[in-house]
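[audit] Reproducing an earlier prediction to check determinism. Same input, same settings, fresh worker. If the tokens differ from the archived copy the diff job will pick it up downstream; this log only records the rerun itself.
[audit] input (386 residues):
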Amino acid sequence: MKGRIISLIAIIMLSYTTSCDQGEQEITIAWKIASALPADSGKAEATGLAGPLAGIHNDHLVIAGGANFPLGLPWEGGKKEYHKSIYIYGRGQHGELILINTDSLPNPVAYGANCATPGGIIYAGGETPHGLTNSVWMVQFIPDSKSISINQLPALPIPVANAAATSIGSYIYLAGGESIDSVSNEFLRLNLENLSKGWEQMPELPIRVSHAVLLNQMEKDNTNIYLIGGRRRIAGGVSEIYSTMFAFDTDKNTWTEKASMPYAMAAGTGLPIGSEDIFLFGGDTGNTFTKVEGLIAEIAKENDTKRKEQLVDKKNQLQAGHPGFSSEILRYNTVNNEWVRTDSIPFSTPVTTTALKWNDEIIIPSGEIKAGIRSPNILSGKTYIK
């Protein structure tokens, strides 16, 4: 495994300059494949996971749950499997990622909303083998025993998957998600210091959305929450994919529309970096996704058996030939309200996962890299800020 990872490592440097109150700020990111998930028993390498729980707690990386197709792709009859394994990574003598222990979640789950807090990693909602869930968990790494502690928090008002979450102080914010029969526009807040109050309804989102990026960053003298991209499922039709960005003013409790991204994007990852910038890493622009959805809608309406078979074959070929998702990096500056393309990640860039901050490093663990195909790789982007 070690030799395979080293052979895959490539480093690319990207830099840009942005103005700030103290002068110019230069941020450089060096990318590499830092490690990979362990292989399942009897397999040469791991399948990888979409929608895993992922976070940093007590200076360790925790990856858990997720879903994949270990026995065949979905259009080949493969069945989606949900997982509950937990993988705990620490740092080696030279800073390398090392798997130090494994554990298990209470139940298999994928596509929940992640965010990290000082007290632990929050995993809210998601999809299980039995359907959607409204369960919320706090996952903690215990350094002394190198083990995991899991505590259940107040449940969400309704079950949702592919929602997005972020935290500010003791508050957890959750936006959108896919419910059983629709896409949510709810914006919820949970105070970890007052759990008896449960989830509080906040001002509704400007749009119904799932697969969005939710994060917080400074804008002037206030911390705003940013809702970026995502998509809205249309029953029996083609999903709407958004290029929009909205900011929630935590002082005024209001939403404001900001500059749109250069293109529509869903299921990507993002982080605030530096004092006034937001970075988005890849995502699904929908080029293949919308074509597949269109064909699924045609197949559902088609009564002619031969024509239906032709449409199914066309859909399967589209999915089998999926080119992968965007590897482009977008940067948004909160002072200028402006998006720019910066560079790209030099590896297959996953969607349906979570970008994490670990000191001066960006971690993007596992995720989906093509339709039905997951990556076991853990990407690392070391940031240098001047």
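[audit] rerun output stored. Observation attached for the diff report: The CA atoms of residues 11 and 81 lie 33 Å apart.
[audit] end
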